[in-house]
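Appendix B: complex inputs.
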Amino acid sequence: MRETPNFNGWRATVLHREDGNTDRLMRQLRLLGLDPRLQWAPLPASDVPDLVIVDADQGWDDLLPWQTEQAACPVVAMLGSEAPGRIAWAIQQGAGAIIAKPVAASAVYPALVMAASIHQERKTNAERLRHLEERVRLRPLVHAAVEKLMRAHRVDEERAYAILRDHAMRRRLPMEQIAAFIVGGAEPLPEAG
Amino acid sequence: MMDALKIGILYSTTGPYGSMGRDARDGAEFALAEFAADGVTAVEPVFFDPHADLAAYLEGARQLLRAGCRHIIGTITSAARKEVIPLVEKHDALLWYMCPYEGFEANENVVYVGGCPNQHLIPLFEHLIPRLGARPYLVGANYVWGWEMNRLARELVNNAGGEVLGERYLPLEETAVDRIVADIEQRRPSFILNNLIGPSSYAFLAAIRQLADRDPAFLPENCPVVSCDLMECELADIVPDAAVGQLCAASYFDTLSTPENLGFKRRVASRFGPERRVSSVFASAYTAARLCAEAITAAGSDDPVAVRGELYQTVRPSLLGPIAIDRDTNHAALPFHLGQINGNNSFDVIASRPPLAADPYLTGRARQAKLLAKPRLRVVS
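Resulting structure:
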């Protein structure tokens, strides 16, 4: 890890009833530079902080404003129970790390680092997946453009595909977009050379 | 009449850290003896020696707690500290830790009188990089201290636009340093950060001296070896004169000329003899033990909550200068001194900075400590 993880200035919401655990947790969050708020009421979707720490022992389904694994920010679960149902609930909320109860001060920073890293990784993967899904969705369009080029230039499929790809690269546009232009006749066919 | 106040002292006097452990034990015991001699509070130190066995630290802490100690001064390594903390927490006791360490910890049941990187490594690099350049070579012991110090060093060097020319590790107590030295000779760094420990470190310093004898580019004035954990009690274990001119950062050196230190050294000489050098672990253990006894007396109780409250609200004079414990981190603000090894197995202090508040997680946030300088994460070159 090259950069030292730093949470200075992060807004954190702790969804937990106030007790000795939250006292230790809030103290540790403050010394890590976070601005923590303690509440035992649903988090409004309009006010998502930089980090959520949620009581997975007592938490209920509408406590967090997102559905299964679609967390809008890094989530840490606080857990005393070992019941599989509670662990599953924590996973459903998008928790990337667990702080076991009773809270040890030394458990807090590692959990934040891990939850933040997992949230970032999930976001990156979700974006990549969206991008790939879009491309798969537009595959028929690419195929249609390749067929049009095959007919026009009397080349085989492999050659037609190479023409399309080179043209997209020269224009610095996605292949799918170039394919749409070609199929729609919005621009002249690229040359075979 | 109150029963004697029992304070646990948990240091290993044998093994790779034996010389530090013996100095730490002597320093803590000396402080408590002096304090008891003042006659205000009867103090009884209770000793346990884990003999470098990591598992024995836990047993030692258990015995000290059972003996009625609510305060334990002890542990040198981070591994030993981490071993005893859960038990200290469970019994709501206080561990007084006084060695420089790699940071990333702030436990309510620990008072930290040793420095973390913003108090040693960062000011060290702020001093070195503008003078020598930002192309260091990093060596370390294969242990969290070496890994984490070198990780942070790499981050500081990158932030300064420099380049780490090499990073090598040795197992604890390994003294075969030839391959590392050969690599250093080839890469020609601007300085060498040494996070080796004990015999590895001594062998490395001796080998660099031999290299410098062949090639003056590696003399200390051109390419110094710098450490954050080398101390007076170790210098006699190094080949004579091999380490002269090399640098070390610490919050105390034997040669500091403050009135507190001069008086302290007279008292040490009358108890331990005029030849005794005071190392930074001796001084830090003394400071921790003294601070512990003073805070308990002022609080009127050895209850850790009362003692912490007392520590937070009072800046006390100490051997390390006026000492304040931060309420958020439980860490002491500490001065930074840069020492250069001289021919008398001691250090000449060549640069100093006033007490720096600890920033164990390197958040860089400005602390509201009035007398104290703010921590900075970046090295400005």
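The radius of gyration of chain A is 25 Å.
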